[in-house]
Amino acid sequence: MSKHHEADIAFIRQLAELLRETELTEIEVDREYGEDDHLSVRVTRQLQAAPVQVAVPAAAPVAAAPAPVAAEATGDAADDLARHPGAVASPMVGTVYLQAEPGAPSFVRVGDQVSEGQTLLIVEAMKTMNQIPSPRSGTVKRILVADGTPVEFGAPLMIIE
After folding, report:
1. Range of the domain at 99
2. Tell me: the pLDDT tens digits for 112-160?
3. Is 95 inside any structural domain?
4. How far is residue 158 from each of residues 31, 36, 40, 56, 129, measured CA to CA in Å?
5. Mind telling me which SUPFAM superfamilies this protein's record contains (predicted)?
6. Cα–Cα distance, 4 to 44 (Å, whole number)
């Protein structure tokens, strides 16, 4: 254990409080005090997901051709879209990128057929690029976020049916 025991305990408590205040799920910090004296801390928490009941209509009307949609969901609309049975939610807080690098084609577009596990977009969190895979096979019906926008944990990113 570090020579800075009391200060380390206070620091870890502050990290835990920061997780609670910001609704983050994980923080990892390395502190260097000098040669052969450092502190590595990883603080995580698990969120309890509330059970969701979803009513699925027997038959949905079919649209002629889906129009491209890339609008940010806010307020009540975001809550409704988050409950959509085809919603893909952000697994973390971060910044959304719809393509691998600037100028590259988007991972997916509205109307594309996707396979389970296919990369839909990237969420950058703490300078780490996290590929977000499709949780199911289907058709991209709506893209709810714009490239380069911040997202919260659980925010709906797109609709796949």
Report:
1. 75-160
2. 999 999 999 999 988 888 999 999 999 999 999 999 999 998 899 999 9
3. yes
4. 38, 47, 36, 18, 18
5. Single hybrid motif
6. 22
